[in-house]
Amino acid sequence: MENIVAIVQTRMGSTRLPGKVMKEILGKPVILWDIDRMLLSKLINKIVIAIPYGDENDIIRDTVKNYNKDIIITRGSEDDVLDRYYNAAVQTKADVVVRMTSDCPLIDMIVSDSIIKKYLDSECDYCSNTFELTYPRGLSTEVFSFDALERAWKEAKKEYEREHVTPYIKENPGKFKLINVTNDVDLSHLRWTLDTKEDFEFIETVYKKIYPKKHIFFKDDILALLEREPELIKINSHIKQKKVH
């Protein structure tokens, strides 16, 4: 049986919203909401929080350790995130790596598990819902083999390839077999990721409106809220996503 490891990169530094993973929603830091939602996966064996070296990131380590001792903490390079990922995968003996980011506190494990299952059922090296974006931004999940990660780690030379982990895999279809998973309906206009203060306001509003009545909620619950209150979409709909390179 394959060891499926979710590796989540996170740090206190952020150009648009510094310290965003420690910002609190309903009294709990974003990073802990991330973990709660990832624990709903039926396929992931281990969750790793991969943080950079540096005293400023100790607060993330301590917060996670105090919250759930089963979550693995690894540390590595601030800027070479590919190296940080690779070493986390080696340390946890991962066969399959699931990449999610800490700026997605609305991540939906029904969606993520469907991508993991597609990967497991296919003869591929990499499977994600990010090539052609049809899910709300903030539900991105990438699944790839340890072998693909190791090859990228050895061969990727460009700065953006090291910083963003998977560009080398995604941009080399001649070296890797790639699969994309699409949603039935194009929801790519919806922004559920955390990168700015407007994004935080949107995500916090979603939690405040849904969580008190329904602690475990998914994509369809958020879509139902937005159907009832479509004006919420305007909170952060004007925000432009940063380019990878």
What helical percentage do the residues reach? 25-40%
Tertiary shape? globular
Strand order of the largest sheet: 5-4-1-6-8-7-9
Describe the sheet with the most strands. Answer: 7 strands, mixed
CA-CA gap between termini? 37 Å
For the record, what is the CATH homologous superfamily label? Answer: Spore Coat Polysaccharide Biosynthesis Protein SpsA, Chain A
Indicate the radius of gyration in whole angstroms: 17 Å
Number of strands: 9
**SS-derived structural category:** alpha/beta
- CATH C-level category: Alpha Beta
Structurally, the number of domains stands at: 1
According to CATH, the fold-level topology is Spore Coat Polysaccharide Biosynthesis Protein SpsA, Chain A
Q: SSE order in H/E notation?
A: EEEHEHEHEHEEHHHEHH
* Low-confidence regions: none
Measured by DSSP, the beta-strand proportion falls in: 15-25%
Overall mean pLDDT score? Answer: 95
The number of helical segments is 9
CATH second-level architecture: Alpha-Beta Complex
Summarize this, please?
This protein has 245 residues and is an alpha/beta fold. The chain has nine helices and nine strands. It has one domain: Spore Coat Polysaccharide Biosynthesis Protein SpsA, Chain A (Alpha-Beta Complex), CATH 3.90.550.
